[in-house]
# Entry
Amino acid sequence: MERIELINKLKDFLDYKRFILTFCLLIFCAGLNLIYPFIYKYFIDFVLFQENIKNLLVVIFLMIFWLLLCIIINLLLCKVRTRFLTLMIRNLKNKIFDGLIECPLVYYRSKDINEIKQIIEDDVKELETFFLNDIFAYILAIITVIFLLFIMFFLNNILLFCCLIFFFISYIETKLIKKYVVKNSKELRNSIVAENHKRVEEFNYYTEIKMLGMEFKIVEKFGDRSKVLIKLVTKEKILQYVNKYLGALNHDLITRFFIYIIGGIIVINGEFSTSSFLVFLGFYETFIKNIRLLIESNFSFNNKKVKLINIVNIIKDVVNIKDQNIYLNNEKIAIKCDKIYFKYDEKRTKRWIINDFERTFYGGRKYLLKGINGSGKSTFLKLLYHEYSVNKGRILINNQDVTQIIPQNFYDKFAIASTDTKIFNMTLRDNLLLANSDASETMLYDACKKAEIYDWIISLPDKLDFKVGENGEKLSGGQQERLIVARLFLKKASIYILDEALSEISLDDEIGILNRLFKNNPDAIFFIVSHRIKQLPNVEEIVIGA
# Structure
C-alpha cells in the first residue's frame, strides 16, 4: 500500500502508457522464466529414461527458441523501462528546480540548503532505484510467486504446504524487524543532515575558529557526533544481517528438511514421478528466491522511504508556494508596515531587531534609512522583499500581504543593489541584459553613462563583450558597483533598494548617480542605506532601531 501511495503522489511525472507496457512485459518475463523447468522435465522423461536421441533434438530446439524469446522480451522490457525512468526523472528534476527557482526568498531562509541539495542530488536518484527494485522487480517477483503457487499446487499440494510454512515464518520475522528499521532510518537520516549542516557552519567560521583557538574543541565535537553516526550505521547493518540470515535458516534447515522427507516418501510410494519432484524442487528454489526478494525489498524500502517522502514533500512545498494566486496589481505603489516585529532565532539574539514599526511608504518618494550599525536597516529591507518573514504584524503592498503575492509578480516590482548583489561570470553586456533582455545597444550604453562606467567600457578592446570573470574579479570594487547600478537604470521597477550600493566610489559621484536614478524613475519608491550620506534634498529620513 505504501508503494501505491507513493506512486499516486508522483502520478503527474509518470508516463502511464509505458508503465502499463512495462507491467505487461513483466508478466511475459515471469511466464518465460517458468517454462524452463518443464523443458527439463521433458528431457528427463523422454531423453534420459527413454534414451531417445530424436527427443534430444526437440529439447535443443525448445531451449534455443526459449532463449531467443527471453532475449527479445527482456531487450524490449529494458528499452521501455529505461525510457519510462529517464522521462520520469527528467520531469521530476525539472519540477523541483522550476519550483525552487520561483519560490520566494524566505523559502531558502526557512530550509537547510544542505538538505535541499541532498534531496535533489541524492534522493532523486533513489527514485530510479525505487522503481527498478521496489516496483518493477517487486511486481515481477509477485507475479512469479502467484504463477508458482498455482503450478506447485497442481504438482503436489502437500509439498506446497511446506513452502507456505516458510513464507509465513519469514513474513512474521520481517514485520517484527520493520518497526526497528523505520525508526533507525529516520534517526540516521536526521543525524546525517545535522552533521552536514554543522560541518558547513564550522568551515564557514574557520577564521574565528583559528583565532579563538577552538580547533581542539571542534575536533572533539566532531568525534562525539561521529560516534552517534557509527552507532546508527552499525545498527542498520546488524538489522540487515539478522533479516537475511533468519530467512536463510528457515529455508536451508527447516523447509528444505520437510520437502526432502515428505517428497521422498511420496516418490517411493509411486505417487510422484522423479522428474516431477525435481521440477518441483526447481520451482521451490525459484519460489524461495522470489520470496526472499520480496522480503529484502520490503526491508530496503523501509530504509529508502524517508528519502522518497522527502522528495514528495519538497515537491508539495514548491507546488504550494508556486500555486499562490494573488497577483500584485498595477496601481501606483504603496507599502504599509502594520505594527511589524522581527527578531532572529533564539540562538542568534533574543532582542527585537524591528520593534512595533508602523509606517506607510508612497510611490514617488525617497527614504533614507538611518540608524547605528546593527540597528536593522538591511534586515528591514529584507522584510520588504520577503527574504525574511515578520514575526508579528503585516507588510502590505497595495493592500496585499507580501506573503500571499505570486513570487515572480512580486519580485518584478523590485530593483536591488547592495553589497550582496552578485555579478555573474559572463560579459558586461550579458550582465546588463539580465535587467532588461530587450534592451538595445543604445539603451545599454545610456545606462552605463548614467552609472558613470561608460568611459571605462569604451576604452576596452572588447567593450561590452568584455568578460568580467568569476564574481566580477576582473573589475575593481567601484566598477562592480557601477555595473550593478547600471542594471537599475535598465529595469523599470516600482521599488528601488540601494543598500550601501555605492560605498566604493566618491560621495559626490554617489549622490550624482542617485539623483539620475531618481529622475529616471519619478513614480517609484526609493530606499537608500548609506553610511556617508547625512541627508539628501527631498528625501525623508527614517530611523530604524534604537
Notes: The first helix runs from residue 2 to 9. The beta strands are 334-342, 354-362, 366-370, 392-397, 400-401, 414-418, 495-499, 525-529, 540-543. The two ends are 58 Å apart (CA to CA). The mean pLDDT is 80.
